[in-house]
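A quick aside before the break. I want you to see a complete sequence-to-structure record at least once, exactly as it would be stored in a machine-readable document. Don't worry about memorizing anything.
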Amino acid sequence: MPTLTVGNNAYDTLANVDTYWSDRGGTAWAADTTANREIAIIKATDWLDRNLDWRGTRYTQAQRLGWPRAGAEDDDGYVFAVDEVPWQVEEAMAEIAELYRAGTLDMEGILTADTGRSISEKTVDVITIKYDTAYSNGVVAAIPVHVYKKLKGVVLAPGSLKRV
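That is the input. The structure line, written in tokens, reads:
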């Protein structure tokens, strides 16, 4: 069984993620084993740190994760405390953890289950199916748009430069 440790391999506790999903009626999350839920949380944390450029700089050189950060401020100019992980990061981690738990993402964050989004056109009579090439071969991460929007205030915009 994995050892889930906030600040080492996870941005939030299993109990908090369980509450997040319980508050949203996530019965499938609660029905899975503790080990599977912890593994999903660890994978989600890894995905966030591998794929996103956070605002600010890591608070200490020795820390393993991207948060906490120094000099990170949201879109409204509020500075995050150097000892906090923003709620946006914790909730995004919970959302991505569920995708891993459900088997929708592989370790690289690649779509592994056809959720129907890969079909851009469908005709019933004389059978026409057209696939959206953006989803072909599972090369697009299936992270929901609302998760990216949630993270907007804590990540750098694509192509932007970090302030030093």
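Two observations worth writing down. The helical segments are 14-23, 27-31, 34-51, 87-101, 145-151. The two ends are 41 Å apart (CA to CA). We'll return to this after the break.
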